[in-house]
Amino acid sequence: MENFETRLFIDGRFEAGEGAAEIAYEPATGEALAHVASASAGQPTIRAPSTFRRLSRR
């Protein structure tokens, strides 16, 4: 497998997913590209308020 960034991009930074791992496939060939961890149920909701405040100041 190639070397891809597999962390989640949340609130302007990369962080490891805390959920179950999934395999990302190349659609044309079916080749496995990377193992990617999903977000846990709380990861996006924890960051949402701070992201909203940061983006609202622009």
Keywords, please?
58 residues; alpha+beta; two-stranded antiparallel sheet; 1 helix
Describe the model.
It is a single chain. The chain has a domain at 19-56. The model has no long low-confidence stretch (mean pLDDT 81). The protein is of the alpha+beta class and 58 residues long. A hairpin with a 6-residue loop joins strand 3 (21-25) and strand 4 (32-37). The longest helix is centred in the last third of the chain and has 14 residues, at 43-56. Strands 1-2 form a two-stranded antiparallel ribbon. It has a two-stranded antiparallel sheet with strand order 3-4. It is 24% helix and 29% strand.
Q: Gist?
A:
With 58 residues, this protein is α+β, with helices and mostly antiparallel strands. It has one helix at 43-56; strands at 8-10, 13-15, 21-25, 32-37. The chain is elongated and about 45 Å long.
> So how many helices?
1
First-to-last CA distance: 39 Å
How many strand segments?
Answer: 4
| Low-pLDDT regions | none
Please compute the radius of gyration using only Cα atoms.
Answer: 14 Å
Major sheet details: 2 strands, antiparallel
How are the SSEs ordered, and which strands pair?
Layout: E1 8-10, E2 13-15, E3 21-25, E4 32-37, H1 43-56
Antiparallel strand pairs: 1-2, 3-4
